[in-house]
Amino acid sequence: MRVFTVDEVKAHSKPDDLFIIVHGDVYDVTEFKNEHPGGKKSTFTLTTITPSRDVTPGLACWGAMSFLERVAGKDATVQFQKYHKDSVLDKYRGKLQVGSLEGKAPPAPKPEPPKPAPAAPAKSVAVSAKTEEDATALEPYGDMIPYGDPAWYQSIVDQRSQYHSPYYNATHAALRKEVREWITSEIEPYVTEWDEARHVPDTIFQQMGQRGYLAGLLGVKFPVEFTDRRVASVPAEQWDHFHELILTDELSRTGSGGFVWSQIGGYGIGLPPVIRFAQEPLKQRILPGLLAGEKRICLAITEPDAGSDVANLTCEAKLTPDGKHYIVNGEKKWITNGIWADYFTTAVRTGGPGMGGVSVLLIEKTHPGVSVRKMDCQGVWSSGTTYITFEDVKVPVENLVGKENQGFKVIMTNFNHERLGIVIQCNRFSRVLYEESMKYANKRKTFGKKLVEHPVIRMKLAQMARQVEACHNWLENIVYQCEKMGTTESMLRLGGAIAGLKAQATTTFEFCAREAAQIFGGLAYTRGGQGAKVERLYRDVKAYMIPGGSLEIMEDLSIRQAMRVHKALGMKL
Ligand code: HEM
């Protein structure tokens, strides 16, 4: 790349030869000015700027010249920072940058690809002795915005005082770095585009497989028996529930429910029942392709008339007289990823009414009689929400997942994992809303002050942060219990608490979306731009508060289920 002097850049200040400087880098925006959303020359007029209530004399009004022409040949860093997030450049740098100013510090070296974590420390979780805890003291990580990342990401810079946590070791720190670097460089700059297109390129899901991430998202030990894919920074034998928490949390930093669900929405709930309950030959046949990201799966439970009330589903599966097949007829609605799925982990009625007549079948796209159509929903646009019809679909009995008429147990076992996934995503989305608000409030000025200098805005930030932190601490506690208890014990013991946590996380998410939108004002009301994440997440809230057990069902269950368990434990009322 060329090195420029300030005077050399100044020479490119005409509409047909237009350079600008941002953060010491030189950009040729001659062509780009015509597609720049900040006002094309031909359309930019006074009316394109809508004054907010803060109608101060400083209101930008630059006549019939586009923003880029106004700063032609100059250093436009200040103006750039006013209207964009720096991450905009991640997307356009490759296309527009022609060089840098002389004397600009060389760019930081590209991060090395993650190396496998060192064998020590081999302990997975729970360090109580102080000496051991100090031995695993971790480097600080992230932007160091208070509450902008989970507490264990922080530490005082001189390393004398670490932010202590009993849950995390060096492999967890390595994983968060590995995932964040991938998300920042290859995902985040394109998420808005993909959301608008309602599709994430298939290559991203394939990368999820290649990087070993898919194999690590099943709520079980890393399934080495079915795949040779590995996560670069975590030895498979050390993989635990906290790695899964970090992976989902960092994926959710994209601030798009659509993106997260496009990757793990169907997979994270459709595959665990198969891996836990399917017959061995079926697992051997389908798991390698799924774990590699070459095939896709979804969970088909909800119907036009049965949502949280799962026991009343009506999609029926009748055994053929020769006992070799089920014939499936019925419909499924709001099925995440259904449109792309090769396999459908489907709840069907094989017996009488109620939960005792439900079974789970793995239906395959290749089975004649399966048809899918995409649904148009309020949020999670790139997640592929689907309406599915099964018409006389002939499914081999070998595809039964669990035992006939005992499907309710399969579904129940799945719920904790599904809901924890929802909690992790919701809480990071809430954190993103808070983090975006904090950054914006420190930049945007109204009535002569930064937003953050107005007590009413600080109050909003405080209310967001305390709810996010409370939720995260409860989440870590529950994940720790999952790590220690077996699947059956955690299903029974934790069902109530996880339901309560889902209620907590979704209401926190809804609150943070509302407050962030108020802080961003008009920018959160328009799609794209600085408020893109806020506008999008506001639309995504209900996709988290209704499915996977609605808020009302979750709150009720958090008491009912807990009472049932504690009765067995000898509760004294
Ligand atoms: C390499 C330089 C630049 C690039 C790549 C760029 C790119 C963009 C993009 C993608 C948007 C859409 C919103 C978003 O995604 O944030 C935007 C909006 C905008 N840009 Fe730029 N821009 C550049 C420089 C500038 C400069 C120097 C100015 C001002 C002098 C400016 C003023 C604006 C304005 C006013 C908007 C509209 C903001 C809004 O709707 O709230 N841009 N720009």
UniProtKB/TrEMBL annotation:
<dbReference type="InterPro" id="IPR009100">
    <property type="entry name" value="AcylCoA_DH/oxidase_NM_dom_sf"/>
</dbReference>
<keyword id="KW-0560">Oxidoreductase</keyword>
<dbReference type="Pfam" id="PF02771">
    <property type="entry name" value="Acyl-CoA_dh_N"/>
</dbReference>
<dbReference type="GO" id="GO:0046872">
    <property type="term" value="F:metal ion binding"/>
</dbReference>
<dbReference type="Pfam" id="PF00441">
    <property type="entry name" value="Acyl-CoA_dh_1"/>
</dbReference>
<feature type="domain" description="Cytochrome b5 heme-binding">
    <location>
        <begin position="1"/>
        <end position="102"/>
    </location>
</feature>
<dbReference type="InterPro" id="IPR013786">
    <property type="entry name" value="AcylCoA_DH/ox_N"/>
</dbReference>
<dbReference type="InterPro" id="IPR036400">
    <property type="entry name" value="Cyt_B5-like_heme/steroid_sf"/>
</dbReference>
<dbReference type="GO" id="GO:0003995">
    <property type="term" value="F:acyl-CoA dehydrogenase activity"/>
</dbReference>
<keyword id="KW-0274">FAD</keyword>
<comment type="similarity">
    <text>Belongs to the acyl-CoA dehydrogenase family.</text>
</comment>
<feature type="region of interest" description="Disordered">
    <location>
        <begin position="100"/>
        <end position="124"/>
    </location>
</feature>
<dbReference type="GO" id="GO:0033539">
    <property type="term" value="P:fatty acid beta-oxidation using acyl-CoA dehydrogenase"/>
</dbReference>
<dbReference type="Pfam" id="PF02770">
    <property type="entry name" value="Acyl-CoA_dh_M"/>
</dbReference>
<feature type="compositionally biased region" description="Pro residues">
    <location>
        <begin position="106"/>
        <end position="119"/>
    </location>
</feature>
<dbReference type="GO" id="GO:0020037">
    <property type="term" value="F:heme binding"/>
</dbReference>
<dbReference type="InterPro" id="IPR036250">
    <property type="entry name" value="AcylCo_DH-like_C"/>
</dbReference>
<keyword id="KW-0408">Iron</keyword>
<dbReference type="InterPro" id="IPR037069">
    <property type="entry name" value="AcylCoA_DH/ox_N_sf"/>
</dbReference>
<keyword id="KW-0479">Metal-binding</keyword>
<dbReference type="GO" id="GO:0050660">
    <property type="term" value="F:flavin adenine dinucleotide binding"/>
</dbReference>
<dbReference type="InterPro" id="IPR050741">
    <property type="entry name" value="Acyl-CoA_dehydrogenase"/>
</dbReference>
<dbReference type="InterPro" id="IPR046373">
    <property type="entry name" value="Acyl-CoA_Oxase/DH_mid-dom_sf"/>
</dbReference>
<protein>
    <recommendedName>
        <fullName>Cytochrome b5 heme-binding domain-containing protein</fullName>
    </recommendedName>
</protein>
<dbReference type="InterPro" id="IPR018506">
    <property type="entry name" value="Cyt_B5_heme-BS"/>
</dbReference>
<keyword id="KW-0349">Heme</keyword>
<dbReference type="InterPro" id="IPR001199">
    <property type="entry name" value="Cyt_B5-like_heme/steroid-bd"/>
</dbReference>
<dbReference type="InterPro" id="IPR006091">
    <property type="entry name" value="Acyl-CoA_Oxase/DH_mid-dom"/>
</dbReference>
<dbReference type="GO" id="GO:0005737">
    <property type="term" value="C:cytoplasm"/>
</dbReference>
<dbReference type="Pfam" id="PF00173">
    <property type="entry name" value="Cyt-b5"/>
</dbReference>
<dbReference type="InterPro" id="IPR009075">
    <property type="entry name" value="AcylCo_DH/oxidase_C"/>
</dbReference>
<keyword id="KW-0285">Flavoprotein</keyword>
